[in-house]
Structure formats: C-alpha cells, structure tokens
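Reviewers of the previous submission asked for a worked example of the structure-prediction workflow described in the proposal, so we include one complete record here. The input consisted solely of the amino acid sequence. No template or homolog information was supplied to the procedure at any stage.
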Amino acid sequence: MRAFAFDEFAKPGSIHDVPTPEAGDGQLRVKVAAAALNPFDSSVAKGFLKDHMPHHFPLVPCSDIAGRIDEVGGGVGQWKVGDEVFGLLGTMAIGEGALAEFAIATAGTIARRPPSMDVQFAAALPLAGVSAQMCVDPMDLTAGKTVVILGAAGGIGGFAVQLAKLTGAHVIAVTRSVNSDYVRHLGADEVIDYSTEDVVATVRRSQPKGIAGIVHTSGDADAVAALSALVNEGGYVTSMRGAAKVEDLAKRNLTGINIRTMTTTAALEKLAALVESGMLKRPEIKTFKLEDSNQAFDDIGTGHVRGKLVVTL
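From that input alone, the workflow returned the following structure tokens.
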C-alpha cells in the first residue's frame, strides 16, 4: 500500500510502498479517507520521543483518522466491514500510523461517523476534540463564570472555546489578532492579542472580580502561573502542556489538572452528537494530498496553525 513515511528523524519523508497491515484481536483495519496532524506528530517526526516510545522505520506518522472499516479482527462484534468511522488508532508504537491507504485501529478508540460530519472534519476532531473536552468538562462552568483560553485558535483551543461557550460561560480567547474574527466565530466573547497586550493586566481590567478558570493549550508555564493569580477560590487551571502547578494551586483552593488525553469511543460519541445537533462547529481545515505531507509537517512545526491540518487520501 502507499504510505507517507520517514526513514530517519528530523528529515523530510516520502511516499513508500509498505506492507498492508492485518487486523488482530480487538482491532479493525480502516481504509483511510483522511488523517489529521497534531503537534505531537511534529515532535515524533523531529525525534523528540525516540527514547520514550517504541518506533521503527520506515515510520508512518499520525493517529487521527476517518475512513471505512475494511477488515474486522476477533472480539469486535459491534463493528462490521463497511462501517464509516473516525477516531484515534490507539496503538502505543510509533511507525504504523494513519498517513497510509490502510491503518489498524483499536476498537475502543473509534466511533461511528455521522453522515453530517465530512471526513475532513471527522479526522480533525478526535485528539483535539477529546483534549478540549477533558480541559473544559471538569471546570463545571455555568452562565456568569469566565474562562480564559490560551492558544484559542489552535486545534484544541478552538474546540475548547466552543465547549466552554456551550456552558453559557463568558469566554476570553488569547491568540494573535489575525485570528480574532475566527475565534469570535467559534464563540469567544473577548479576544486578547498576546503579542501586543499584557494578558494578565488586560484580564484583570476586564474581570475585576476574577475568573473561574484557565485552559492552557499554548504558551509557557510562566504565563499560566501569572494568570492563575486571577482565578477565584474553587477555580480551575487545566493544561495540555504540564504547566498546572497542582500543589501550589491547591494551597489557594484551586484545582490544577495536567491533561493526558484518553480517547474513548464514549468521548468521541459525545462529540459526534454535538456535531449532529449543530452545536459544535467545523474548525478551519487546511487540506493536503498524501504526497504533500512534508508541507503539512512544516506547517504544524511552526506552532502557529489556525484550526487543523488534514491529509486526504
């Protein structure tokens, strides 16, 4: 089968002819229609995780997929050949990824793709959507509460803006001014340009009574620590980058959570229901052909992607 793969870390990849995988027990083979990139995939390509996760070359990257089940392994009776699905591959090894004609997924990390969700949207949703869900859900946000979202125009941030707004909360999006209209379209009530404004001072002026929480998807730990001084007692700081200083926050009766995304069928089904109801909007998606995957990796490596990057097959 055709696949995009790397032959070494920190070098461009190319189209390869690799063996077509077979589904084992608890697995499904998916004929891939689209696959999404995440910052994690850029770290993999650069070799940052080579000493932490098993890998092999040629290394086929990415885990977010949308496609059709082509083969069913043992013990997965709820699925059948021809089912349209989306989700995460669910494997812990690096190298047998989604940028290929076929990919192996675990049955517990995929869900049925509703007809109202196109394959590009479906591929863009799994990791970013579930991550946003895990950031926002613990906060118990309601109308009248304010949450600040750092990196609001990115994949996770964009979904976090929407999920926070669905609770009725007042959402302050922190991003560059070029993304202002985009995050307002997603539901942000206020936008702060971190490159030209003092974020903490601006939030303090806007919310003199304090805020309910922070969702941190981009930016350094010092910015999170400074902003957390404005979080009211009982509030939350959730971080995708390990920046929530849990013990220090607990001393102020704040809950800090460093998110480790756990993608499950149930979490994906919850997101799919929001899409079907029209409550969760399609993010901005830039698409690439399989042979143009190097450009997609160059883009994700800049750290300034608006929305999501998706490779279509």
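The first helix runs from residue 39 to 45. We consider this example representative of the routine output the project will generate in years two and three.
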